[in-house]
From TrEMBL:
Residue numbers spanned by region Disordered: 86-119
Classification via Pfam families: DUF982
InterPro entries in the record: DUF982
Highest taxon, organism lineage: Bacteria
Biased composition (Basic residues): 110-119
Descriptive protein name: DUF982 domain-containing protein
Length: 119
């Protein structure tokens, strides 16, 4: 199969509103179908969604690679407030590890000129 629209991508799934399950895409055309779905939360002048759809079209036309199309799709889903799997599933673990390794820093208000002279 030579058609890039059906070339495999790293699987991505989004939880669309009013859906009992996640919608999964394994190809660029699959991502385009989800983006154009009636369930996708549309907003007027949604430039992130428009960019994602345009990037998918450019990938199909071989003007960009499928990785960029997937990245734009994920950005649009997050911008729409949708959960993205597996991408969002991995992030909390990374954050939890990095926050545990950081030391707590307390913020102190700088002294005013008057307070510095009274010490």
């Amino acid at each position: 199969m030579n058609d890039i629209a059906f070339a495999p991508i790293r699987e991505v799934a989004v939880g669309l509103p009013d859906a009992d399950h996640f919608s999964t895409a394994t190809t660029v055309s699959g991502m385009m179908g989800i983006l154009m779905s009636e369930r996708w939360p549309k907003r007027a002048n949604d430039t992130v969604w428009q960019h994602a759809l345009a990037t998918c079209v450019r990938a199909v036309q071989l003007e960009t690679d499928t990785t960029k199309a997937r990245k734009a799709f994920v950005a649009a889903a997050r911008d729409a407030g949708l959960k993205v799997l597996p991408d969002d599933e991995q992030k909390p673990r990374i954050r939890a590890r990095s926050s545990a390794s950081r030391s707590t820093v307390q913020w102190r208000q700088p002294h005013t000129k008057r307070e510095r002279h009274s010490h």
